[in-house]
Specification:
Helices cover about 65% and strands about 0% of the residues. It has one domain. The longest helix is centred in the first third of the chain and has 23 residues. By secondary structure, the protein is mostly helical. The chain starts with 8 loop residues before the first helix and ends in a 20-residue tail after the last helix.
Amino acid sequence: MAAEAPLTVAEGEVLAKLINGFGILGAQMLSRTRPDLCARAIGNLKYCRDAYGDVFKKLHALSRRQGDESPLRLIEDIEIQPADTIGYLRIAQRCLLACAFLGHCAAHLAPASVTPEIAPKEKRLH
């Protein structure tokens, strides 16, 4: 990642959405307890792909150069639901690999030029 231009903080917000979506999707591929979460995660991932196409192109090129799982390719592939247990496990594995790649990208964000604001209470995790 050092040779490429680092991702911006705004692009980092997209990374967070993708990590969340792939994490939920991978967990649901393993447990199959909440099909509504699975469908919502897929919908959110497709929305991100359509809304942030430029970020996806950047991530796709970077993932191909590094030999990592491409979030763009994975979203295209999850539109076809697996028919067997092996298919579900393969999608779950790819979701984990995509999360690892995206986490690596998030660790190399360009430093923000301004001090970030503290998130409002409704957006805080704790």
